[in-house]
Amino acid sequence: MAVCHWTKQANRKPMDVGLWDRRYSKQGFAYGRDPNEFLLEVADLMPTSGKALSLGEGEGRNATFLTKRGLTCTAVDISKVGLSKARRLAEEQGIKIKTVAADLANFDFGVDSWDLIISIFCHFPADVRWQVHRSAAKSLRPGGIVVVEAFTPEQLKYNTGGPPDLERLVTPKMLQEDFEGLEVLRCEQKERAVVEGTYHTGLSSVVQFVGRKSLSTKEWKLDKVSQYQMRIDQAISDMQDAGGSFISNIFPAPKDPFLSVARHALGHTIQASKETGQCRYCWLLEEDCVCAQMREQAALTCGPVQWALLCHPLEFMRSSSSGKLLASVLGGEFLVFGVQEHEDILDKVLSDSGTRLLLPGDGSRRLKDWLSEDQVIPSESVGTGSGSPILTLLVLDGSWDQVRALERELADRRSAMGQRDPLPRIRLDDAAVESFHSPLIDALKPGAGKGRLSTFEACALFLREAEDCLCVPRGTWKEALKGLDPMVRVLQRQLQLPPPPGEALELEMLIAALRAVACTAPLQDGLRRCSVCGAAFATPLRMRDHLGGRRHCTAVAMQFSSEKGLSSSPIDREEASKIFESYSTVPLSRCRPEPPDVALVKLKNEGLLNREQQSGKRTGRELCQLRFCFGCQRSWCLGITGSYIGSQEGSGRDLF
């Protein structure tokens, strides 16, 4: 395989890449199209999902094999010609691989980045080999696997392939030293027939090595964070690989209009998050990143409870979403609807007889009722302390409408799988919900946190109940809630808004003039929170109408009058436009829209939503329920999203 080969001079320089380009530019495949035989032999030891890295990949035979097994594979090689053939080979097989043209001596492996690393006949001089192998070991995620096959010094007498100089040949002892700290699953020297293309041609002396990074308690916790980050990487990679073609292959095809264009929404969301400088893991601005704090709180032990979160595509990368903490703090599985690599995992969760949906509504019961009445969890397993999960809780993340849409789609999917019964549902204790005060919702809307829950807070309250029914360590729910603190502090700082203005009759003339020009004022896509008057909306599609509304224009007029004073002279359109630009357009242009809200506006502009959804309007009954929910008499509502909703759907008791 093409790698960085070095001379024996003191100041080593890489061998001319032209050698490898010439080799790979010939007709056919220098080392064949089939995967390495040793790789096939140890396939059962390798993961079937996650991120894989192939060193000195050459023309793609091994990378395509790993990709077809379910891994997201990156192929690194010094030869661009070889990597070009690798991409074509993948395309012929209907898959995609990522290729990186790089000198492995200078390649950034990262830390806790890979689930599998393979090095097949990838040879270096001693000092470079040690450097590359140590970097590879460090970059493995906990539980990650490294697979190496290389020629030994005895290979020189066979003359059937491999480097011609002793310095670049390898012994078992060398590999054990290079990968010190890994659990050695296999390390042996043997003779075998290596027939791969025209450059590996017969009986050879090889060393074969398989190592695994251990899963200590600390590493296990970090591994859960790494797993969450891997799911995010998969979602982003899936959209990038789509190359603007977001055709969905979800079966059955979603009936909900928003979910039917999920991949379009995700594509726009990811693009918007890059433009605004958002951290891909904690979803806050990069300067406010709390990923380090998330790792400190990583993966509490939940006893027999394991988690799986399904994120609505229009909730993905929303900075105020708490669902992401379910994966990083409680060690749950993180899935996004519409991401192809998450589909098989979701199907496994849905087909698991131990899966329950954490959602109130018809047929839902409290945990202790399920245990006592139906014994859905084997009674002999409860309280055993074995640590083996016996209950999987599926949590849906999004607004109430989004959660209901996901619930309907999951029912259709289970039906297509031959499971007619809906997922059993578990709800929280009403009294516990009523007495809870959410710091996250208070940060978003001061005073609105009593009796309402974010997605993650609902999961923490479930653990509180599980302490009495299952073998969940005491105090776990309190420790879990600490995971919210870093995000809450950032949101409190970001969302300090002025109080809604009062009525001022003397401003009527200015307000009328401002309302007349507001409809044509510029507005950036995706805003649903107004920094001028403090209003917030469930959808950004309502923001344009808000600009011309009385509340907004009153706030603009009051701000202007407090700084400049009022004139008794009539205000013409040109002057009103200048005032509106200075006190509305400019302040709003400094606001950062949420990526999923930008995506929603783009979906509308692309004509992918029907007329009713484009309007963003609610019925009078819905507005009344929203007002009752927040205990206010205004016709505007707060756009906070989450998934745990009150047990009586029509009551307006939204528990975010």
Automatic annotation (TrEMBL):
Catalyzed chemical reaction(s): a uridine in tRNA + S-adenosyl-L-methionine = a 3-[(3S)-3-amino-3-carboxypropyl]uridine in tRNA + S-methyl-5'-thioadenosine + H(+)
Domain C2H2-type: start-end pairs: 530-552
Biological processes, Gene Ontology terms: tRNA processing
Domain of life where this protein originates: Eukaryota
The protein's enzyme class: transferase
Listed GO MF terms: tRNA-uridine aminocarboxypropyltransferase activity
CDD domains (UniProt xref): AdoMet_MTases
Keyword list, A-Z: S-adenosyl-L-methionine, Transferase, tRNA processing
The EC number(s) this enzyme carries: 2.5.1.25
PANTHER family assigned: TRNA-URIDINE AMINOCARBOXYPROPYLTRANSFERASE 2
Family statement: Belongs to the TDD superfamily. DTWD2 family.
Protein name: tRNA-uridine aminocarboxypropyltransferase
